[in-house]
Design goal:
Layout lengths: L2 E3 L7 E3 L3 H52 L37 E4 L5 E4 L6
Antiparallel strand pairs: 1-2, 3-4
Length: 126
């Protein structure tokens, strides 16, 4: 039963949409939404990559400041936040907090013997 609009001609005109019309519109909206979804996925991977590179640059800059003050490279990223035992000339903290990898929160940044930052899983030694 549909709503009828009265006219002067005794003709009944139904107002509203049929089920098929609504389904077609929803189907077309779904196709449009699906066509834009891949763009969001690639944007988030780009943001993760840029965040990772920014973390590495920030840690490597702090490593250079540490080396200027102490004379050697730090043994770990934690040495940039907290003063290591037995180290003279430490004027930190060189970074406020230890950044975590945007790809995997279980993966930490490590500093190699030349002061470069690498990724290492927990428990992995350089």
């Amino acid at each position: 039963m549909g709503c009828t609009l009265g006219t002067g001609n005794n003709q009944n005109h139904y107002a509203g949409f049929t089920l098929w019309e609504i389904l077609v519109v929803l189907f077309l909206m779904g196709i449009l939404l699906m066509s834009f979804t891949p763009h969001f996925g690639s944007a988030s991977s780009l943001v993760r990559k840029q965040m990772d590179q920014a973390n590495i640059r920030r840690i490597e800059g702090a490593v250079q400041l540490y080396k200027i003050d102490v004379g050697t490279f730090p043994l770990s990223v934690e040495d940039l936040v907290n003063s290591p035992d037995g180290v003279r000339g430490w004027h930190g903290p060189y970074i406020k907090e230890i950044p975590h990898s945007p790809y995997n929160t279980e993966q930490d940044y490590q500093i190699n013997s030349s002061g470069r930052v690498t990724h290492a899983s927990p428990g992995q030694e350089e």
